[in-house]
């Protein structure tokens, strides 16, 4: 057996309801919790924080669970997850402030899963938790990384000269507080986002006035389409390559991260997504674990 693999999936026996999400009842067990923790203990990127993960399991902040029916309709909206597989997915539920690690309840479909995969998945979703529950810590702790990413992104999209740190931070903080941190999105918040981008970035763009305005319209339109309908977003992705493609390049330029498996779009409204993806890389893993330790 590959040393990087461990038996994570407990037999689906002794199950009990552990949560209900979007009307779907989720089931777990003490054995499943133990096997999940065992995997994290064997993962190099999570081993040092084992006691923290154990505590979060005990507090029901992390909930490993099975689904008892075909999960793909339930999970369709999570196709943007940067680490995903045929058998395991995870998400942070901002409403009840819990991370769910979901597994298909069919032991014949899988027997093993890579420890490193579960480690990445767990760190990714817990960083979303940090951003939501420790917002001041998050924005201050990862300010340098956020400025680096969004500078690269906006330089590519809007053909800007060097944008001052304070300008980038001002916009990122607005997005983080008023979009990511909001209970729901509103036209008003998007309009203010548009106005702020126009005011703060126009002094640095080398585009003509009309070209800059058109590009900013594309930027806001792709956000609105995504928030309105994921299906429409996929149908229209080709029209907005000028906005979407630079997001992938910015991960490479800022963090040397290549070959992303995620679909980039959330970065325009969820700054935490940038740090979640960067934190999957071992070079940023220790900083991520320090943030998670504050939960």
Order of helices and strands: EEEHHEHEEEHHHHHHHHHH
Tally of distinct domains: 2
Helix content: 40-55%
Largest sheet: 5 strands, mixed
- Which regions are unreliable across 5 or more consecutive residues at pLDDT < 50? 1-8, 73-77, 107-112
Rg, rounded, reads 20 Å
Can you give the mean pLDDT? 86
Q: State the helix count.
A: 13
Q: How many angstroms separate the termini?
A: 35 Å
Strand content: 5-15%
* Spatial sequence of strands, sheet with the most strands: 2-3-4-6-5
Could you say which overall geometry the principal axes of the C-alpha atoms support? Answer: globular
Backbone structural class: alpha+beta
Number of strands: 7
Give me the secondary-structure topology.
Layout (H helix, E strand, L loop, with lengths): L4 E2 L9 E6 L2 E5 L1 H13 L7 H9 L3 E6 L4 H4 L12 E6 L4 E7 L8 E2 H19 L1 H7 L1 H16 L6 H16 L6 H15 L7 H20 L1 H7 L4 H15 L15 H9 L2 H11 L3
Parallel strand pairs: 4-6
Antiparallel strand pairs: 1-7, 2-3, 3-4, 5-6
Helix pairs in contact: 1-2, 1-4, 4-5, 4-12, 4-13, 6-7, 6-11, 7-8, 8-9, 9-10, 12-13
Outline the structure in words:
The protein is α+β, with helices and mostly antiparallel strands and 295 residues long. It has 2 domains: 5-133, no CATH class; 136-292, no CATH class. The chain has 13 helices and 7 strands. The chain has a 5-stranded mixed β-sheet with strand order 2-3-4-6-5. A two-stranded antiparallel sheet has the order 1-7. It starts with a strand and ends with a helix.
Task: Summarize it.
This protein has 13 helices and seven strands.
């Amino acid at each position: 057996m590959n040393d990087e693999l461990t038996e994570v999936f407990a037999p689906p026996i002794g199950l009990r309801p552990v949560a209900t999400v979007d009307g779907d009842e989720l089931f777990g067990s003490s054995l499943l919790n133990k096997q999940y923790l065992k995997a994290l203990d064997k993962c190099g990127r999570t081993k040092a924080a084992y006691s923290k993960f154990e505590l979060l399991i005990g507090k029901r902040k992390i909930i490993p669970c099975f689904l008892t029916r075909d999960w793909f309709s339930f999970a369709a909206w999570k196709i943007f997850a940067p680490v995903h597989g045929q058998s395991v997915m995870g998400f942070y539920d901002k409403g009840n402030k819990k991370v769910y690690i979901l597994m298909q309840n069919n032991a014949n479909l899988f027997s093993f899963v890579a420890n490193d995969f579960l480690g990445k998945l767990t760190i990714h979703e817990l960083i979303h938790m940090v951003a939501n529950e420790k917002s001041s810590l998050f924005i201050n702790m990862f300010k340098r990384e956020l400025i680096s990413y969004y500078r690269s992104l906006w330089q590519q999209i809007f053909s800007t000269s060097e944008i001052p740190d304070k300008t980038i931070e001002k916009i990122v903080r607005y997005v983080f507080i008023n979009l990511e941190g909001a209970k729901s999105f509103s036209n008003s918040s998007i309009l203010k986002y548009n106005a702020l981008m126009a005011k703060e970035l126009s002094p640095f763009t080398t585009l003509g006035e009309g070209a800059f305005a058109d590009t900013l319209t594309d930027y806001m339109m792709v956000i609105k389409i995504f928030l309105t309908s994921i299906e429409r977003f996929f149908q229209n992705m080709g029209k907005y390559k000028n906005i979407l493609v630079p997001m992938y390049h910015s991960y490479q330029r800022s963090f040397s991260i290549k070959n992303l498996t995620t679909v980039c779009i959330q970065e325009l409204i969820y700054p935490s997504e940038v740090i979640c993806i960067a934190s999957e890389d071992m070079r940023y893993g220790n900083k991520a674990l320090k943030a998670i330790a504050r939960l």
